[in-house]
Write a structure and sequence with these properties.
Number of domains: 1
Distance between the termini: 41 Å
Structural class: mainly alpha
Helix content: over 70%
CATH architecture: Up-down Bundle
Number of helices: 6
Largest sheet: none
CATH superfamily: CDP-alcohol phosphotransferase transmembrane (TM) domain
Number of strands: 0
Strand content: under 5%
Radius of gyration: 17 Å
CATH class: Mainly Alpha
């Protein structure tokens, strides 16, 4: 049955995927409070779909593809829009997008050469995603209140960048070593 509750995690991932475009538009159009709410909702769907899938055993091959795709699109929309309005440095956008592009390229190459496989999120990648979402929420919160970003904001950007880089390296070594 299409509407069976075991599909709820996938519906939540689809909702998060669909929220990425409004998130981007709301930020670019300076509707920061609405964008903050959309990002909170999207982050909540991420937590809830993961919990439902694990708690009830509702994991699926489709979900293992859809969930990270929705995460990446949400993160990329947020960082892209915040960079466009000058609230996030361009170099950070390149680090976040670059990591995801390298991982996606690696998956495509692997799939082309070896066929289908499952990629599992690592603790480091989950930490990286959490810090990225917190960075986006804090940045949106600051710009929505028309507050200047705090002086330590550069440190937060570096934390996001370092976690993104280390998690990308971790994926590379984890999957390269598994196939060696």
């Amino acid at each position: 049955m299409f509407w069976h509750r075991s599909h709820w995690p996938n519906f939540l991932s689809l909702l998060r995927l669909a929220l990425s475009f409004p998130l981007f538009v709301l930020i670019v159009e300076n509707h920061f409070r609405w964008a903050w709410g959309v990002l909170v909702l999207a982050a909540f769907t991420d937590v809830l779909d993961g919990w439902l899938a694990k708690h009830f055993g509702w994991q699926s091959a489709w979900g293992s593809f859809l969930d990270p795709l929705a995460d990446k699109l949400m993160i990329l929309a947020g960082f892209g829009a915040l960079t466009l309005i000058g609230a996030t440095p361009l170099w950070l956008l390149f680090v976040v997008w670059g990591r995801d592009a390298v991982i996606a390229a690696g998956v495509l190459v692997y799939y082309t050469l070896r066929g289908p496989f499952r990629i599992f999120p690592t603790t480091l990648s989950k930490a990286s995603t959490l810090v990225q979402v917190l960075y986006l929420l804090a940045t949106l919160g600051s710009v929505s209140q028309d507050l200047p970003l705090p002086g330590g904001w550069r440190l937060a950007a570096w934390l996001v960048a370092l976690l993104a880089l280390f998690s990308g390296i971790d994926y590379f070594y984890r999957y390269a070593r598994a196939e060696a």
